[in-house]
Amino acid sequence: MKDDTQESGRRRRYFQYAVFALAALLVVSLGVVLIPREPSPPAVPPFSEQARASAFADSLTLRAAGLDLEGTAGATAPASQASALARIVTLLTVQAQALMLPDVASGNPALDGAAASPATALATVTPPSTTADFAAALQASGAQRLQDAEIADGGMARLLAGTGTAQLLAAEDLASAAGITLAPLADADSSPTASPAPTTPVTASAATNCPSEAAAADASTGVDLGSALALAVESELELVYAYQAALTRLNSGSAAPASIFLAQHGVLRGEAEAMGRSRCATVPPRQPGYVLSQAFLADPAVGLGTLESGTLPVLGDVVALSEGRERVWALSALQSAARRTVHWRASPGPVPGMVLDEALLPPLPEPVSTLGTSTTSTPGNS
């Protein structure tokens, strides 16, 4: 009888232990559920998105500064300077529209500011207040966009390259109109006769390793880039012929830079041919001549400007499809072509290398916030 009582007591204790353990487990689980977890840090956006957000912030900051300068200097500035400021404000407006996210266009500009990361957006700075500082900030912004374009993804690289090229040209336009001397950029030549950076020659053995035509047709990136390079070669061949024909019809003042441009196109043609062969592309043969319109023969300067501007989308394709040294070559060639286009008084467009239908771009939300993080709103911060 005594043993039964002891056994019963032990069972009751075990049962109590089990009840207490279950209650403790229930309390702990409820606490875990009720206490919220610390939120995970937001994922770092890809570099291309960071570069786009930084470019968008800079365009808004510079646009606001341009509007201020246009308003304060409109009555006292020379007509050429006032016109240059007006053109820059228009340019920055179009570029901001092209760089803007759809969500921002729908009226939530805070979404775009969240995309900027400390990796590319270092500090919020005060917009430039003088024309000289504005021109320098615009130049720095253009240089930053081109630097980002070297490693951004294809389509974004093209957008950044065109944005940066146009900003550099606009800064030089304003500096010329206002009598300002811009500090030279590192490893850059802003003269219209500057040649693109040379590329490493492609050896003949690179072309001998090309696959058959059937195998090449199944390739993707290489063939796409090769096709773009083949179009670039075709454009250079036509421009070489056009400049040769124009030299006998241009006046002495225009013939000198035209001779330099002709030499540049000869170099570009050879480099594009070499890179095309390295991509196993079918390089267009050199034709004995091209058909030139009567309008070209009547005014070769205008005709050269039209032909130069026509090469910009082709070079934009090469920028988007290439990487590494070929990307660097394409960026340099795009800038060179844009400068030659401007030299002949043709328009390279707000984003050289891209064909934009400005009527389809979303309007900027009003009022536009200019407090976004920017890397280039003060000279030297690039």
Concise summary:
Helices cover 64% and strands 0% of the residues.
Could you characterize the architecture of this molecule?
The protein is mostly helical and 382 residues long. The chain folds into 2 domains: 47-191, Ferritin (Up-down Bundle); 204-343, Ferritin, core subunit, four-helix bundle (Ferritin, Up-down Bundle), CATH 1.20.1260. 64% of the residues lie in helices and 0% in strands. It contains 14 helices and no strands. It has helices at 2-34, 47-73, 79-99, 102-105, 110-115, 131-149, 154-178, 204-208, 213-217, 221-247, 252-278, 294-298, 300-321, 324-343. The longest helix is centred in the first third of the chain and has 33 residues, at 2-34. Mean pLDDT is 81; it is low at 109-125, 197-205, 214-223 and 369-382.
Protein traits:
mainly alpha, 14 helices, 0% strand
How is the secondary structure organized here?
Elements: H1 2-34, H2 47-73, H3 79-99, H4 102-105, H5 110-115, H6 131-149, H7 154-178, H8 204-208, H9 213-217, H10 221-247, H11 252-278, H12 294-298, H13 300-321, H14 324-343
Helix pairs in contact: 2-3, 2-6, 2-7, 3-7, 6-7, 7-13, 7-14, 10-11, 10-13, 13-14
